[in-house]
Amino acid sequence: MDVTVIGHGSLMSGLGLSSSGTFRVRHASIVSLAACRRGFAKLSRYGDRFATDLEVTKLPLEGHLVLPTTPPNGEVEALALTVLLDDLYQLAKREGYSPAAAQRLAELAQAHGVNLAAFLWQIDAETEHDVVAYRRRLFALTGFTSSHYIPHPVRLVEAGYALTFLAPGFEGTGADDVISVRQETGIHTLMSTREAWQRKPNEDQLAYFLSCLLGGVHGIGIHDLLASISEEPALAEELTRRIKQTMEKEQACFLTTLGLTPEDYQCSFGKPESALVRSGLGAFLNGGLL
To answer: pTM of the full predicted structure?
Structure first.
């Protein structure tokens, strides 16, 4: 069984993905997500830093695959990876969700004759796209929920269903005795890159920013993440230096980590020069306005 996973933060770059090993990716593409915005909110499990989250303004969560020649339309863009279940379990563990719980959901999906993402969508539809009821149903089915990230279904207009990991906030995790990290730390709303840096001006946060922004090397629109950086000149200078130092290795790392051929890569993400322009990263590195 294959499943498409959408990464909206460090899962958008080879640098970020490689910390979890290598993957057998069947397909990779840019995806655009409707009616949501992205920012930093959840305190990470892996250091003194805030990780990304999505604030969905209209449920259910929907999106569409994007060709590298299509200009960004202002929606949040992310990376969609179609992987085998073993790779999904690896990613679930990384995101703080139990691989055993993910496997149980996959077994239930198989029993229903659908893939995991489609099964999650069925649950979401049965609960009338109520995120609290949906999480409670997952907890009832698996006996597990997470204070970090929980898988949530996404309907892709062109390609069925995918899943992404959303951090629960004050609305709850689906279990009364499991308190979300966002609630524990009092993070009610998403922070911009500048705001996250003001809270965590340290090496851990800087390294995480880098792993997210390198997604722009592959043409993924990151205008939202870049927008506030110019308000912190020292941060902008240091990120510019690190991105320029790392970006040449990033593409090779991306190919190796995901097992993509150069031909498959170019089909999904286009030529390097065009990708930098499309994502907004090229303008940022040149000191231009976004």
So the answer is: 0.97
